[in-house]
Amino acid sequence: MHLVTQVIAAIAFGSLSAATSAGHHESADPLKAAASTGQIVVVYHWPCADTAKGLSLLTSLIAYEKSASPVAYTAVPAMHADGAVVSIDVHPSAESMDNAVAWQGADEQWQAGFAEMEAVCGSADDLTTHVLTVQ
């Protein structure tokens, strides 16, 4: 009978361990997808002479966008492995992206913030843009 108890205990422990480890990647706050099908992701990459100052200015510019833009989209600042300043923007659609770009071009405060970034990071000619459509 002692052997039967040990076998049952081993099976129960093994099942419990498997069930526990199967959910190792789950959490109370799981990560969400970066974007959904049909959304537009834009990655701006700008080599910057002063990365810390460039990131600070970009963060301020994004905060301004969030409070002032009439077009809904999200943006986050990042630093590329090569040291460039990066902005990752997610737009609900291509039309939304076009509207956001038009707003940026017409908004004097946004343009002033961009000019400040250009003074720190160098020519906007060095800014590259990658536009991705989420599938």
**Structural class by secondary-structure content:** alpha+beta
CATH topology of the domain at 40-133: Alpha-Beta Plaits
| Strands ordered across the widest β-sheet | 2-3-1-4
The CATH class label of the domain at 40-133 is Alpha Beta
Bin the strand percentage: 15-25%
Count of DSSP H/I helices: 4
* CATH architecture annotation name of the domain at 40-133: 2-Layer Sandwich
Q: What is the N-to-C succession of helices and strands?
A: HEHEEHHE
Using DSSP, what is the number of strands?
4
The profile of the biggest β sheet is:
4 strands, antiparallel
Distance between the termini: 59 Å
What does this structure look like?
The protein has 135 residues and is α+β, with helices and mostly antiparallel strands. The chain has a domain at 40-133: Alpha-Beta Plaits (2-Layer Sandwich). The chain has helices at residues 2-22, 51-68, 94-106, 108-121, and strands at 40-46, 74-79, 85-91, 128-133. It has a four-stranded antiparallel sheet. A hairpin with a 5-residue loop joins strand 2 (74-79) and strand 3. Helix 2 runs antiparallel to helix 4 (108-121). The chain is globular, with a radius of gyration of 24 Å. The model is unreliable at 1-21 (pLDDT under 50).
